Amino acid sequence: MTVPFARLFIKDYKNFTNTAVRRAYGILCSVTGIFLNLILFSGKLVAGILARSVAMEADAFNNLSDAASSIISLLGFKLSGKKPDADHPFGHGRLEYISGLAISFLILIMGLELGKSSVSAILNSEKIESGIFQIIVLAGSILIKLYMYLYNHGTGKKINSPTMEAVAKDSLSDMISTGVVVLSLILSPFTSLPVDGIGGIIVAFFIIKTGIESAKETIDPLLGLPPEKEFVEAVQEAVLAHKPIIGIHDMIVHDYGPGRLFLTLHAEVPGNENIFDLHEIIDETEVDIAIKFNCLCTIHLDPIETENERLKELKQVARDVAEKIDENISIHDVRMVPGERHTNLIFDAVRPHDCKLSKEELKKELAVRIHEIENDVYCVVTIDDPYVN
Predict the structure, then answer these.
(1) Cα angle vertex 259, ends 254, 260, to 5°?
(2) Checking CA distances to 141, which of 27, 223, 321, 343 falls within 20 to 30 Å?
(3) Bridge partners of 354?
(4) Would you call 306 helix, strand, or coil by DSSP?
(5) Do 78 and 24 form a contact (C-beta atoms < 8 A)?
(6) What is the pTM of this model?
(7) What DSSP assignment string belongs to 331-379?
(8) From CA 314, how far away is CA 176, in angstroms rounded?
(9) CA of 258: how far to CAs of 112, 255, 341, in Å?
């Protein structure tokens, strides 16, 4: 649905990861939304006044709020494209999320106002004077909103925009709410019930539900989400393709808005190889990851022992014990300090957020179980929080 307009107005329109192209798509969708919603507002308002329908007039003002939402979305995409400056060194990309949050609040306010008007319509019921004109206007509105849903949803998926997805969900909610208004107009001549007000309450419910869902989807990236499992696996595969890197851990992904992704991780390398050669490989890996995933990548070189057989055995024991406690616990940075009477085994364990044991309990449980298997081994454990799924 986005291709015909994109071909006309967006240069290099297939390059969805490009920041300028994303911004152009967002602006195009916002302008389209403003235009179509103003048309819907005008048509529904006239039809609602003629029919004396509170639900239809409320639905009209819902479209007016949608036009305002598109204006906010337009400003969000424009401002999010600003370059980093002294006060905002990571750029302004999160303004897109903030604009999506503002749209969600507008949706909620409109839903609450509509609910209030609908209750008043039930308490002070009036006869609706509907006709073919009103039905045609509302049917046309549903078709236009279907187009807008497909258009914004398609664009949102292509450019990975929560703002566009919020607008698409609002269009879907509008289709349902307008359908309820149509039903109330059809039923009103055959019943004495205040179907206009009842229909308005149902519409308000759908609008409020959409606002809450949209708010959650825009708040989550502002608070910080873990990267998707597929992304983590793709990064791991790309890093391990650079030999002699043999493992990664402590991956952290910071999302400062579309096109402003920062990635850090520790890369395990054999400790017996030339440090200058290893450093060069790490630099090459950083550049490769930055290009492949459109991010800024920083990799910490983490040398580990690869030829100590006793360390390999103890590392496997620690991993087996951790897996029995919780299959999602991972072990890294394992090293040992041998002594005359016992050996200190030092390692980090990543505790999943849903682990039933606290950090102190997990630390003690790992140490006790490993000592039961290897009675000359004492553990020094550091418990880490996970930053990826």
Answers:
(1) 35
(2) 27
(3) none
(4) coil
(5) no
(6) 0.62
(7) EEEEEEEE-SS-EEEEEEEE--TT-SS-HHHHHHHHHHHHHHHSTTEEE
(8) 61
(9) 32, 8, 56
- Cα(198)–Cα(206) distance, integer angstroms: 13
Which residues are CB-neighbours of 362 under 8 A, at least 6 positions away? Answer: 325, 329, 349, 351, 355, 383
pLDDT digits (tens, 9 = 90+) for 165-214: 877 887 887 887 788 778 877 877 777 778 777 877 877 787 788 788 77
Alpha helices in the chain (DSSP H): 3-9, 19-51, 54-80, 95-123, 132-159, 162-187, 195-223, 229-240, 275-293, 309-325, 359-373
Least confident of 192-201, 304-313, 315-324: 192-201
Six-digit token string for 306: 């690869």
Residue 262 phi/psi, 5-degree rounding, is -120, 130
What strand order describes the sheet that includes 295-304? 247-255, 261-270, 295-304
* Cα distance between residue 203 and residue 155, in whole Å: 26
User: Residue 257 in 3-state DSSP?
Assistant: coil
Which structure tokens are listed for 347?
């390692």
